[in-house]
């Protein structure tokens, strides 16, 4: 079966030496993740990462995203005939945020809302991230 390629963004939101992570409390098997999503048609990756951050976190004040690089990730182990062309960004948060919070991510109205539970982890002790999302973590540690 032919795999389609989907353009994605992955956001490493950083503040005070910490990285923003989340879990799906209703789907713990999804693992620990960072905000990410699909680039819409005719959307620049920098715009997509900021849009996804607002949709997924409920936060809205970020510095300009810093491009870290790109990589392909095969989603077939997750039952999806897709290759994700992922664009990774470091995105400093410029507003206060709680230590933990839940946000109902609405996917821009495209899919049913999902509950995300956010928290912060020290950049020096990031647990493994699901589905290859940690591919560029080495780049944020030196910029923190």
Automatic annotation (TrEMBL):
Cited PROSITE patterns: NUDIX, NUDIX_BOX
The keyword Hydrolase is annotated on this UniProt entry: yes
Keywords, comma-separated and alphabetical: Hydrolase
Molecular function GO labels: hydrolase activity
Positions of the Nudix hydrolase domain: 2-144
SUPFAM superfamilies per UniProt: Nudix (SSF55811)
Top-level taxonomic group: Bacteria
Co-factor requirement: Mg(2+)
Family: Belongs to the Nudix hydrolase family.
This protein's name: NUDIX domain-containing protein
Organism name: Candidatus Methylospira mobilis
Lineage: Bacteria, Pseudomonadati, Pseudomonadota, Gammaproteobacteria, Methylococcales
